[in-house]
Write a structure and sequence with these properties.
Distance between the termini: 28 Å
Largest sheet: none
Number of strands: 0
Strand content: under 5%
């Protein structure tokens, strides 16, 4: 997984967008479980 994250980190904004997207999905799953 780190192998895929490395090139994304070099792109900057796209990396941040990906992180926000992951956080969003995580929150949605937590709300569904809750």
């Amino acid at each position: 997984m780190a192998m895929r994250v490395a090139p994304l980190a070099a792109q900057g904004l796209r990396c941040q967008w990906g992180l926000w997207r992951i956080l969003g999905t995580f929150l949605l799953y937590s709300l569904r479980l809750g």
